[in-house]
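Hey,

Quick one before I head out. I ran the complex with calcium ion overnight. Inputs first:
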Amino acid sequence: MNHRIARKTNALDSLVMGCLIFLIPTLSYGAAAHTGGKIQNNMIADTRTTGGFPGPGISLESASGAQVDNNTIYLAGSYANAIEYRFSDTTGALIRNNLTNKLIAHFDSATGTETTNVTTAQAAWFVDPAASDLHLVSSIANVVNAGTTISGLTTDIDGDARPTGAAYDIGADEFQPDVTAPSVPTGLSATAFSSTQINLLWLASTDASAGGIPATGVSGYRIYRKTGSNAFAQIGTSTAVSYSDTGLTASTAYTYTVAAYDGANNLSAQAPSASATTQAGTSSSSSSSSSSSSSSSSSSSSSSSSSSSSSSSSSSSSSSSSSSSGSSSGGSGGGGAPSDGFLLALASLTAARLCSKRRG
Ligand SMILES: [Ca+2]
Ligand SMILES: [Ca+2]
């Protein structure tokens, strides 16, 4: 596995943008005089606590005038730095709006300006660090709307507008709140368990991402029972796809429906209702129950069965990682810089553009 997606020498204005990087902790400019260039809107994650690459997520080496903006870096290992810039011919670096869980450090008299970076990120802030999905799960204070305006950087890794809201968000993701409700529960059935209890079962809803906006996921279900006035009133909630309504009257018909809500409290429409009649009291032997509708007038049908849902949920992912190019292992040449035998070289390319993928 390569650790560096781009090591460039004698190049001009290289662009590394919009990468979603799995287990490739270092983007690097090369050891010999790179001029200009931008590393923006990348998500870089390595959740290995042992065996990971002992280096930063982004490194500038002998790079003058580079911009490192709006990247999100989460590294679970023990290495102290997420972004490094080094060597005396690294000058004028602009390092802005980066969201990391490790430090930003410079060595060897390299010079640069660090603006509105946040280096205290927590794994819980992100959708799925193990899958390199470092989208924000919620509107994190001091991250959302807390960044600096970057000339020319008008979208995020998803293509969402920058800024969305009052100001740039920090990191690769311009946070978009989940405003999409989960799917409507299906297959609701009601079964009389006794003279005082009816059990409900239904099929799980899903909460899908939409338009590059991460889903918060199904958090639970609201349970409703039809009242004497033929309206539905909520009688409880359940995080499972079942519910037992107790304390009922014998030989009485009850009608139910359920709706799903997600982590942002978006509520689905109500499922087609289902009815059941509680069993008779002690003496009689009639019993019966069954689900399905029954009451004539208003109640809809029950529709049991039906297909399940599926479609997983939440984040997408789609890799894309290393778009590589000519390889070339061999000597690192850099003093002090982390080196390994897997360096990719993108020599002689100017204005090479990597990872221009778009999600959603
Ligand atoms: Ca976004
Ligand atoms: Ca949702």
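Confidence is low (pLDDT under 50) at residues 1-10, 22-26, 284-354, 356-360.

Talk tomorrow,
K.
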